[in-house]
């Protein structure tokens, strides 16, 4: 098990394969800490994923195990991506799903950036 109680990191996960260049993506930003690309099934006019470059399953893993500089660099990249996408003036939402209740599908820590319209309630009625 990983730190977060999720299964251990699987290097064959889809985002690991995107990082290795085995699968294409619509890249919007890359630096030493993060890669950002458009979600394949966007749920807002702008829907971008930001992923760190190391092997972390979830937010819990990342924040517990990654070096402080890596964590800072990643979150700076998230803000830079939103700025580069022109979302700062209108606002945007960042979200990270974790585990089954969180609806996490891909076991490589990632942050969603949503924007381009009024996004409404934080959590839709279930
Ligand atoms: P999660 O539910 O794990 O937080 O979100 C995973 C996200 O990855 C989903 O929004 C899904 O549409 C996206 N996704 C899954 N496979 C691919 C892919 O091959 N390419 C891209 N760009 N996004 C993907």
Helix percentage: 25-40%
Count of DSSP-assigned helices = 4
Query: What would you give as the CATH superfamily?
Result: HIT-like
- Uncertain regions: pLDDT < 50 for 5+ in a row? none
What global shape is seen?
globular
Q: Which series of helices and strands comes N to C?
A: HEEEHHEHE
Alpha-beta content class: alpha+beta
Beta-strand percentage?
15-25%
Question: Radius of gyration, rounded?
Answer: 14 Å
Explain what you see.
This protein is an alpha+beta fold and 126 residues long. It has a single domain (14-115), classed as HIT family, subunit A. Helices cover 27% and strands 20% of the residues. The chain contains 4 helices and 5 strands, in the order αβββααβαβ. The protein has helices at 14-19, 59-65, 68-84, 99-102; strands at 27-30, 34-38, 46-52, 92-95, 111-115. A 5-stranded antiparallel beta sheet has the order 1-2-3-5-4, covered by helices on one side. Strand 1 (27-30) and strand 2 form a beta hairpin. The longest helix has 17 residues, at 68-84. The chain is globular and about 35 Å long. The mean pLDDT is 95. The site of guanosine-5'-monophosphate (5GP) has 14 residues, from strand 2.
Give short descriptive properties of this protein.
126 residues, alpha+beta, 27% helix, 5 strands, globular, HIT family, subunit A, binds guanosine-5'-monophosphate, five-stranded antiparallel β-sheet
Short description, anyone?
The chain is of the alpha+beta class and 126 residues long. The protein has four helices and five strands. Guanosine-5'-monophosphate (5GP) is lined by residues 14, 23, 25, 37-41, 49, 97, 103-106.
